[in-house]
Amino acid sequence: MKRTIETIEGDTTGVSYSIPVYTVSGARSDTAPSAYLQAGLHADELPGPAALHFFLEMLREAEAEGRVLGAVTVVPHANPIGSSQYHFQKMEGRFSLGTRDNFNRAHPHLERPDQALLPVDDTSMSADKKLKWRLAKLSLGHDIILDLHCDDESLNYVYIAEELWPQTQDLASCLDADAVLLWSGDADQPFESAALAPYLGPDYKKILQEKLVVSTIELRGQRDVDRTTAHLDARRLFNFLVARGVIEADMGVSPPKPYQGPVIPLLNIDMLEAPVPGIILYHVDPGSEVEEGQPLVTLIREPGNPDRDVTLTAPQAGLILTRRSHRYTRSGDALLKLLGSKPSATGKGSILEN
Predict the structure, then answer these.
(1) Given CB 3.0 to 4.6 Å as the disulfide criterion, which of 41, 47, 188, 342 pairs with 219?
(2) Please, what are the domains in the chain?
(3) Whole-prediction pTM value?
(4) Residue 47 — very low, low, confident or very high, per pLDDT cuts 50/70/90?
(5) d(C-alpha 48, C-alpha 324), whole Å
């Protein structure tokens, strides 16, 4: 396994950022599928980096035994810029403080998977834009591209483009995903849509249908970081690469079973928003099955005056996928995601919330 360092120059003199990258060339890289895995693009989302820490242990063992067939690139923590942004003892890993942009937005969309389309000189770019172009360079050309994230408080779920479903249901099955969210369009150009974009032309239809896998993987919530869970996620990722022929199994492994969980288009997601500010009292947890009209959240607007409480109910029956980890909300903030069986009356159908 080779370890290299990608260096990104900062926006001021004397500042630079380092990204460790781990690669294995693969014993049959000319014929076996290749894989790219990254985590921590939102720097404060740590279940992914923890999982890739243990995944790399498994990959080293497989390499020593000659079982890594395809080329594998792993970026365990892809965003040192976000990791460096501390305000009042809290990491701000989601947005660039220099440009105010979300680190998982405005990624470059290429017309085709061609390294020649990447910029040769990035000196005039802001540091966060340099980061996005560098990740595009590292990931471009791989058959499997997985971007590991997490939510606030959440089930284990994945985003998959409609163009890649159902041929990628083995990913959801291997990860034991609680839900699959199907998206289309490019919204605000998150990394996932940028990684898919070069293959949407007619010349790459066969690749798109037969071997390409691009997914954002949401590994539960921000506080779900522990050794047991990280080991489990690492093993599931490893098993998926075995199922896809990137890695050879060390013993007989059954192929993934067809995915049996809910598969929900983004139009069916209700994002419950706070109509008023207040203290959040949840009536439901992620994983709760709810009926239309069931109380979901009560907001205490004025402690001591229950007449001003506001209770929000389910706009339709469905599954609670996520909820926020903080317990005070501003007016207009999202409070939870509800996966419904029909299109949301208020949903916008975008890939991700900001």
Answers:
(1) 47
(2) 2-261 (3.40.630.10), 266-340 (2.40.50.100)
(3) 0.97
(4) very high
(5) 19
